[in-house]
Every structure is written in structure tokens, then in C-alpha cells.
Design goal:
With 576 residues, the protein is an alpha+beta fold. It has 17 helices and 21 strands. The strands form five sheets. The protein has an eight-stranded mixed sheet with strand order 9-10-11-2-1-12-19-13, with no helix packed on it. A five-stranded mixed sheet has the order 16-15-17-14-18. Helix 8 runs antiparallel to helix 11 and helix 15 packs antiparallel against helix 16. The radius of gyration is 24 Å and the shape is globular. The N and C termini lie far apart (55 Å).
Length: 576
């Protein structure tokens, strides 16, 4: 099976959030702009992403939590940027999708999150649907919930959601030149049609186990046709969705307020009454410490922040008590790649010795304060679909003695000199580059680190002439397993990062891509990882993650940020 993917930009994405301020307002929404600006201090089960033919996916009972949910209160969230406009289909900006008007909308599917959910996680569950099944012709048939109504705002006025609304939205997303134009085609999603008011048929143009992830993407939002008809587009239109939050207004300094939707179709949700979002730009480099954020946290004015490693080191020294949780997102981490078309890296033994010499767990512990993992870097359905640390250590990474043995067994008496190009994205990247340099020199290599402009390094790695030996750079933003593998590791991929021609690896990637049985696909994906590591093409020495630091009063807060997910805000509450 062959698939085509557009070449993606290589620059890393910044953190989506700076923090969150919790304030005590029991029942009332935001009364005024001033109140939003100066808040007072605060007082369904997983669905399979690859259903088998004729197997129906039913919603499961709600998860049981230790603490009872509490209705009321409000949060003030600080985003790192303001959104450019309100049209959720004409921009792929994360703030717009997950911390802006996008909060008002629903999708057909969403990602699982919650207390029992291990991360990373790409497991699907229904949002607007009740169930889905795969028909004999390899199309998906979705039964929509009959209790979904548009928010009671003109011109939609609270009417019932219909399958035609989804067809309209998906057709609009495919507008040529828009960010979502290729989202469905790249995943094999073809025609989408309404069979009746509450039944949707999604056809596949080719067999892709990740096809439904396109419908769960946080940017695949369902909008009302009446609003588009009245305003022409959604850039300055009234924000009307079927989601848990109602867009209230945008006030000064870009601050936006969202009220609880009392007619939301999931009983009891959202638990909070109001969410207010205020853009707070972070000075300096994306992962640099933010003194303002830390000061607000220590002063008790911020109850939740997303902390890069540089902030976390200072937070640990603080006297403030807080809870902490990490959400995994492997595809936004660092990638260490070896160019197999360049001497001496056309020699497999040299590449294997390089991999064996590096100790990424030391990098994570020392430079990143335990924030991150080690692996191939691709997004996966669950952690069990990744090679575990024991196997990576025993066979591929983290042993100077094993690296020396490989060199000795292959009669490499004088290991060659190596050039390591590092994306100049701040001290964190440079520090990892220097640690790799030290590990390579410890086993006999001569190594030299060069910090490069990220755009220049991107051109060096993905241009027609790939003139580099070793590169350490951000992972390109591919949020699905197949997107990542076909772009970066398949020989025919536009971003074949190791510049290899490996028919065995290609075959493994292709067979797992079409495998609809999750258990069998897991086996194929583990073989893909083993082969890529054995050939020493690339891996992620620090996989991506977000560390959430938050006040103990915030409960049931289990963010899963993959695929621009955001429903977890509706499920959190403040303790009594």
C-alpha cells in the first residue's frame, strides 16, 4: 500500500498554555470585563480506533472517581498567544482550537482521557455519536446522539443537530488552501454523506488504521451552516456550537469568557461555571523560564501552569505546595537522526555504536528533570505499543561498553570524527547536544556540536541535498502513527529522515498501516521500532510531554493533549 503525505514544516510548536487561575464563584457567570480581568482567589469509556467489520462500538458507563464532582466555580486560563480570528476551520492555531472559540464546538469523535488512562493515548470514544460500525464495503456507519442541540443563540436558536451539519462542516474543512484540506485525504477518508438525520456514512479511499483519527482531531469541529450563511465566514461571526462551553464575549486585552452550557448533552458536564482565557506571552525562547508565571504561582494567583523543565527546576525549590501531572505527547519531542548516505554513517556498525554510546535517560534526568521519555517518537494508541526501557537498554542504547565492543568486533580501531548539528532552540537543546558529544567521545569518537538556525537545519535535513551527518532537532508535527512513519521512516516518505532505502522497513510500515486488529497492529509496530533501532536510523532521546503543575483544589484533571484534544476542561472540578 502506498500513501502520499505533504511535506510538513519542521519548526517545533510552543507550549499551548502558561497556566490557569482558579477563582471562587459559586453560581454566577462573569459579571463584567473588570471581574474577568481581576478574578478573586478561589474558595465514557474508550472506543476502539480500529473496529472490525460489523462490530458495533457502544458507549460505556462513566468512570467512577474517588471524590464526588462539584458544580460551580470558575477558572482563568492564561494562553501563550491570542487567536487570530474566530474561524476554527481557517486556522490550525492551537490556541484557537483548544483555548479559544474552539471550546464551544464538538466533534464526531474525541480522545479518551481520565484517571485510568495511561499516556500517550490515541484511543477513540464518541463525542457526537452514540456508536459506530464498519460495513462490509469498508465504510464506517455512525449513529448520532439524538439529544444534541445547538446552543440557543441566533440564527441557530437551539435546533437539533443533524447529520447534514457534519457533512457541511467536513466539506467546508476540505476547502482548497485551508489547513484541513488534506487532513481527510491523507488518512484515506473519502466521501462523507448523511443517510438520514442521525446516521452518517464515512467512506474510505484506502485502508488506513488511523482513518478515524482525522474525525477526532481537535480541529475537526462541527459548525452551524446558518452561521456561515449569515456571516460569510466565521472570522468575526457569532460563535455557536454544541459543546460544553458558550462563547460569552471578548473583552479588553484579548481576554475571552466562556460560560457553562446548561443544555450540553452530557449530563452534569461541564462542572465549572465559567472559563476565562487571557493571553499572556512568554518572553524569550519557548522553553525558557518565565519569571512572571513563577511569581504568579508563588503568589497564589495561578493554580495551574504548564511548566517546561527550566520552570520546573525553580518550582521544586519553591515553598508553595502543588500537585503535578505529566501528559505525554511523543511526536513533539527531540529527534536524533543519522544520515545513512553520508560517510561514515553508511556503515551500520558505526551507527549502532553511536546509538549504543548515548544515554538518553541521563539527559532526561539531568537536563529535563524527568520530563520526557525515550523511544522512536511516534504517536501511539497506548504506552504498550512502544518499546519499553528494558528492551531499549538491553539492545540499542545506553551502554559505553557495548558501543566499544561493536567498534572492536568490526575492527574500527580509530573511530571517525562526527559532526552533530543541533537546532538552536535554546539552552535545553544545546545541553543535550553537548551530552551526546561527551558520550560519543567516551567511546573513542571525535565529535563536534554546531548550533544551527532551525530553518537552515530543516533545509539541510529535508532538502534535495541532505548535507549533514547527525542532527538533533524537533520532531515534525505528525499527530498520527501512520503520518509519522510514512513521512519520516518510509523510504518513499517526503521526510525520510535517515535517507535510507530499506524495503524491509517499508513493508513493515505498510502492513501495520492497514491492520485493523489492534492486537496484531501492536505486534507489527513493535517490529517496526525494533528494525529502526537495529538499523540505527533515528530515535527520540527526549519524547514530548507537558508537565502540569496545579493547586490541590483542582480535581479530576487528567489532560490528554494529543490531536489538539481539549474535552478534559469540561471534566475537571474544584474541591468543596
Amino acid at each position: 500500500m502506498t500513501q502520499s503525505f505533504k511535506t510538513v514544516l519542521f519548526l517545533t510548536m510552543g507550549l499551548l498554555l502558561l497556566g490557569l487561575v482558579a477563582c471562587s464563584s459559586e453560581e454566577a457567570p462573569v459579571e463584567s470585563a473588570e471581574m474577568a480581568e481581576e478574578p478573586v482567589s478561589k474558595s465514557a469509556s474508550a472506543q476502539s480506533p480500529t473496529p472490525q467489520a460489523a462490530s458495533i462500538q457502544e458507549p460505556a458507563p462513566a468512570q467512577v472517581y474517588v471524590g464526588a464532582p462539584r458544580q460551580g466555580g470558575y477558572l482563568v486560563l492564561a494562553s501563550m498567544a491570542d487567536y487570530p480570528h474566530r474561524d476554527v476551520h481557517q486556522s490550525a492555531q492551537e490556541t484557537l482550537a483548544t483555548l479559544g472559540p474552539g471550546l464551544a464546538y464538538s466533534r464526531l469523535l474525541r480522545l479518551e482521557a481520565g484517571r485510568e488512562v495511561e499516556q500517550p493515548n490515541l484511543t477513540l470514544q464518541c463525542d457526537l455519536c452514540e456508536s459506530w460500525e464498519m460495513a462490509p464495503d469498508m465504510s464506517y456507519i455512525f449513529k448520532l446522539r439524538p439529544d444534541v442541540y445547538w446552543q440557543k443563540l441566533s440564527p441557530v436558536d437551539g435546533r437539533q443537530l443533524e447529520a447534514d451539519d457534519l457533512v457541511f462542516s467536513y466539506d467546508r474543512m476540505r476547502t482548497p488552501g485551508w489547513p484541513g484540506a488534506t487532513r481527510f485525504a491523507d488518512r484515506g477518508v473519502g466521501e462523507i454523506e448523511a443517510l438520514d438525520d442521525l446516521t452518517l456514512r464515512v467512506s474510505l479511499e484506502f485502508r488506513d488504521a488511523d482513518a478515524l483519527l482525522a474525525l477526532a482531531d481537535g480541529r475537526s469541529k462541527i459548525v452551524a451552516p446558518e452561521v456561515v450563511e449569515e456571516y460569510g465566514d466565521l472570522k468575526q461571526a457569532q460563535v455557536i456550537g454544541t459543546g460544553p462551553w458558550i462563547y460569552e464575549r471578548q473583552i479588553r486585552s484579548g481576554t475571552t469568557s466562556y460560560n457553562r452550557n446548561p443544555d450540553y448533552f452530557e449530563p452534569g458536564l461541564p462542572y465549572l461555571n465559567v472559563i476565562t482565557i487571557k493571553p499572556v506571552k512568554s518572553p524569550g525562547e519557548a522553553n525558557s523560564a518565565n519569571p512572571k508565571r513563577l511569581a504568579l504561582l508563588e503568589a497564589g494567583q495561578i493554580d495551574v501552569v504548564v511548566a517546561p523543565p527550566t520552570d520546573w527546576s525553580q518550582m521544586e525549590r519553591s515553598s508553595v505546595e502543588f500537585n503535578s501531572r505529566i501528559s505525554q505527547q511523543p511526536e513533539i519531542g527531540m529527534v536524533l537522526s543519522l544520515n545513512t548516505s553520508q560517510e561514515p554513517l553508511d556503515n551500520l556498525a558505526i551507527r549502532q555504536a553511536i546509538f549504543r554510546a548515548v544515554d538518553p535517560w541521563e539527559y532526561v534526568d539531568v537536563g529535563w528533570w524527568g520530563q520526557g521519555g525515550v523511544g522512536l517518537g511516534m504517536p501511539v494508541r497506548s504506552p504498550h505499543w512502544q518499546l519499553n526501557q528494558s528492551e531499549l537498554l538491553s539492545g540499542y542504547l545506553g551502554s559505553h561498553s557495548a558501543a566499544r565492543d561493536i567498534l572492536h568486533e568490526n575492527d574500527i580501531i580509530f573511530p571517525p570524527s562526527l559532526e552533530i548539528a543541533v537546532a538552536n532552540l535554546g539552552p535545553d537543546y544545546r545541553q543535550v547536544g553537548y551530552q551526546i558529544e561527551q558520550d560519543l567521545e567516551a567511546v573513542g569518537f571525535e565529535a563536534n556540536v554546531t548550533a544551527m538556525d532551525p530553518a537552515a537545519l530543516q533545509e539541510t535535513m529535508f532538502g534535495e541535498v541532505r548535507d549533514y551527518q547527525i542532527a538533533l532537532a524537533p520532531a515534525p508535527p505528525h499527530p498520527t502513527t501512520n503520518g509519522y512513519l510514512y513521512s519520516l521512516l518510509h523510504s518513499g516518505g517526503p521526510g525520510n529522515i535517515a535517507n535510507h532505502d530499506d524495503k524491509v522497513l517499508d513493508a513493515l510500515i505498510e502492513v501495520q498501516a492497514a491492520e485493523l486488529d489492534p492486537a496484531q497492529r501492536q505486534k507489527w509496530l513493535l517490529d517496526v521500532q525494533r528494525h529502526a533501532m537495529e538499523q540505527a536510523y533515528m530515535f527520540s532521546p527526549i519524547t514530548g510531554s507537558y508537565r502540569w503543575v496545579f493547586d490541590w483544589d483542582l480535581e479530576n484533571f487528567y489532560p490528554n493533549t494529543s490531536l489538539s484534544e481539549y474535552h478534559y476542561w469540561a471534566e475537571a472540578w474544584l474541591r468543596q
